[in-house]
Amino acid sequence: MVAYYFNDDSINTAVKYTEDAGEFQDLITWDQLSDLARDALVKTDWDETLFNVARVKMPMKDGVFVEKLNGAYPF
Fold it and tell me: Global pTM?
């Protein structure tokens, strides 16, 4: 299982492996989201949040996803 993790000390979020029992969430694709949901995710300025002192880009936002994917590809 993978669990969502929040660290109060560093105000950081992440996912990590866990042995704890939990729920399964259905995987959905971008196309399965409503127009309203897609629009909200694209138009929100995730990169300008109060806690983004490291200037990290939102990895799933249009234009950033392919850049991150190419950077992670080992070949």
Answer: 0.44
